[in-house]
Design goal:
Largest sheet: 2 strands, antiparallel
Number of strands: 2
Structural class: mainly alpha
Number of helices: 15
Distance between the termini: 29 Å
Order of helices and strands: HHHHEEHHHHHHHHHHH
């Protein structure tokens, strides 16, 4: 399945194949259209990243009474110019690599972190027919791709030849690994209920009731592990400026720094989208209300599912921003103790509860 199977883009696909097929061959046309589809998905992700950055500054500005992000810019879009100014600043900064840094790993680190987020985004079901890469084991692939990010972060810390970067990279990697295991167990619990490791089938299996109602503990654990994986408050220890300057990003500037920040917000969007797909029914409605969408024209129904999905995602994003404004950071020992001594046993309990719920529902 791909975006070209949606009622909106299917006519475009058919027409493109008719035009390009005789010129570059059917296989070549399919490869070209697949490339265009990937570019469309990545563009959608980056558009959401820009919106999330703007929203976070607006919401934090309101909560903390900061005038710049709230008022800078034209009416109705107050604060928009802050993001534009940041982008121009990063674009015009000097491109440099520290003299004693390992040049290859210095470049690979940020690229690996960005790649992991975008690759996961290609498997997210954004709406009916809007699934980039359909795979029967997509959840397994997502878990595997997520494990690349700690490697990229560690490369960033190791390559810069800076003790603060190294300490920040080690902290970040330890934090991510500690919270990955509870997150994986929670995702497996949802997969057990759906009887599938396909993220699309997990979302579509919630047509009657969302898994957040069946696995409330799992949903809470996933949100906590997401905050730790994203290194957001109260788990922003790897980038604690009062302790480690900027953590593993200390020696990165210009667009290298911009890539790392973009990777962060890509992960914010992608992990929120995964929460929606796994616990909030994806692009569907609960209690069998999806039948109402079938009364709409196919193209309008497909657009409606795309809108429903994004509304759910931004509710989760707002919650993540709200938590950032309300809580202070943990110490490193508190963070690791919470992960191994609290969340890991609770994730096992959630797995047992999912098995019991599966027996009742079946």
């Amino acid at each position: 399945m791909s975006w070209y199977e949606s009622p909106i883009l299917q006519p475009v696909y058919v027409k493109a194949m008719e035009v390009l097929g005789p010129i570059i061959g059917r296989t070549g046309a399919q490869l070209l259209l697949s490339l265009i589809e990937s570019i469309l998905i990545i563009a959608l992700i980056f558009i959401n990243v820009l919106i999330i950055v703007w929203l976070e500054r607006k919401i934090l500005g309101r909560m903390m009474n900061r005038r710049g992000p709230v008022y800078a810019g034209p009416p109705l879009l107050w604060g928009l110019f802050q993001a534009i100014a940041d982008f121009l600043k990063l674009m015009t900064k000097e491109f440099f690599i520290p003299r004693r840094a390992d040049r290859l790993t210095y470049i690979i680190g940020p690229a690996l972190v960005v790649f992991a987020g975008l690759a996961i985004g290609l498997m997210v079901p954004f709406g009916e027919g809007f699934v980039g890469l359909k795979n029967e084991a997509s959840l397994i692939y997502i878990i595997a791709l997520a494990s690349l990010e700690p490697m990229g972060v560690m490369l960033c810390g190791l390559s810069a030849n800076n003790k603060f970067s190294l300490m920040g990279g080690m902290r970040a990697a330890a934090q991510m690994i500690s919270y990955e295991l509870p997150a994986v167990l929670v995702l497996i619990s949802a997969a057990l209920l759906a009887g599938s490791v396909d993220i699309l089938e997990i979302a579509e299996s919630q047509s009657q009731i969302w898994y957040v109602a069946i696995l409330p503990l799992g949903a809470l654990l996933y949100l906590i592990t997401v905050l730790a994986e994203l290194e957001r408050t109260p788990f922003d220890i790897p980038e604690a400026e009062s302790e480690l300057v900027a953590g593993f990003m200390t020696e990165y500037g210009g667009m290298f720094y911009g890539m790392l920040m973009a990777a962060h917000y890509i992960s914010v969007f992608v992990t929120s989208a995964l929460f929606v797909a796994v616990f909030l029914g994806g692009y569907g409605l609960p209690f069998g209300l999806n039948a109402a969408l079938e009364m709409l024209p196919p193209a309008l129904a497909s657009l409606t599912t795309l809108l429903i999905f994004h509304v759910k995602v931004y509710i989760v994003v707002f919650l993540l921003i709200w938590i950032r404004a309300a809580y202070f950071r943990f110490r490193i020992d508190q963070l690791l103790e919470l992960g191994w001594k609290r969340l890991f046993p609770l994730s096992l309990l959630n797995l047992v509860w999912a098995i019991a719920a599966l027996g009742v529902l079946s």
